Structure to design on (354 residues):
């Protein structure tokens, strides 16, 4: 038995070995350094006016990330019928975000999240149902917000990061956004069908997930897990409208807080401020950015995220050099902390549960 535990521990450690953490940092840093070396000059620094007012807005940006995590923790407590404490929910969310940060955006940390929940005392089948419910709620947020913002805003401004550049950029951005949206919409339809109409189809998906190397050890027990999923799906279908409303509001709270981080960061350095319409446009472009990040093959979208930030949000900044600098600050606030928190938490979590 101890040998099995040791083998499981080694498998999980291999999945999150240090080079998985180093790669996204190196990729993102390389892209930012290249952009800064190309765009930053003496005039760029003259545009920066850092004061205590700036520090306050940066602090608010960090607090918004905390609000975002609190929303995820609240959602997890709702979906587990408050079986998880706040401290346990914090631990799971941080590990989940860490896994997402070291895997390509299209993959995320969903498969390993099932293992995290299971080791914290939730049956495998119910863990799968909870993870699928979180995916359902996340995708529902994007599916509802994207067309709403497109209807409210000028589509030329929304999909064009520089009105003076060739229209080919706008066309490419539009194609990326529509492609990503269709992927998310298809996934949401399949997930909804599996959770609420055909749980046996979801069982098949679980069997496919457990073919991954890190989870292959448990693939022989996937049949029983599939039965648990069917039972859990029955439970989810029986949940009240208020239950789903609370879970969705926690999701809405989380994603909205995350998108407002960039709006607040911009206020930290440009005191003339932005109009309400500009703030909504900045918010909307971030949502489009996250949809486009689905195509990024790099861990956590490293490199691609920084590049898209400078091109897509640079219009709201005085210079391209400042856009590159802000891209770095944005990732320092919204991405890198999860890497370091995960490095600290994961070995202790493995030691406790294996």
């Amino acid at each position: 038995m101890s040998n099995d535990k040791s083998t499981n521990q080694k498998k999980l450690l291999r999945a999150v070995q240090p080079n998985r953490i180093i790669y996204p940092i190196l990729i993102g840093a390389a892209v930012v350094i290249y952009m800064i070396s190309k765009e930053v000059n003496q005039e760029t620094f003259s545009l920066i006016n850092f004061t205590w007012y700036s520090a306050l807005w940066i602090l608010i940006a960090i607090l918004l990330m905390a609000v975002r995590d609190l929303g995820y923790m609240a959602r997890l407590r709702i979906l587990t019928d408050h079986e998880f404490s706040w401290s346990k929910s914090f631990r799971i969310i941080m590990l989940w975000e860490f896994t997402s940060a070291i895997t390509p955006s299209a993959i995320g940390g969903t498969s390993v999240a099932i293992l995290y929940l299971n080791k914290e005392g939730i049956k495998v089948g119910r863990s799968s149902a909870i993870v699928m419910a979180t995916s359902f709620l996340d995708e529902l947020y994007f599916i509802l917000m994207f067309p709403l913002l497109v209807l409210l805003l000028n589509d030329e401004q929304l999909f064009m990061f520089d009105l003076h550049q060739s229209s080919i950029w706008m066309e490419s951005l539009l194609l990326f956004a529509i492609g990503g949206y269709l992927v998310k919409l298809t996934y949401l339809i399949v997930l909804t069908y599996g959770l609420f109409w055909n749980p046996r189809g979801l069982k098949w998906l679980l069997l496919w997930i457990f073919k991954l190397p890190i989870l292959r050890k448990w693939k022989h027990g996937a049949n029983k897990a599939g039965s648990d999923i069917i039972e859990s799906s029955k439970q989810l279908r029986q949940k009240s409208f208020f239950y789903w409303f609370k879970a969705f509001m926690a999701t809405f709270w989380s994603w909205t807080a995350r998108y407002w981080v960039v709006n607040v960061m911009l206020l930290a350095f440009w005191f003339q401020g932005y109009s309400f319409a500009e703030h909504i446009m900045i918010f909307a472009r971030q949502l489009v950015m996250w949809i486009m990040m689905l195509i990024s093959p790099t861990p956590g979208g490293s490199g691609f995220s920084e590049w898209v930030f400078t091109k897509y949000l640079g219009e709201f900044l005085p210079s391209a050099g400042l856009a590159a600098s802000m891209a770095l600050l944005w990732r320092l606030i919204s991405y890198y902390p999860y890497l370091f928190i995960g490095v600290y938490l994961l070995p202790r979590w493995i030691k406790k549960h294996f």
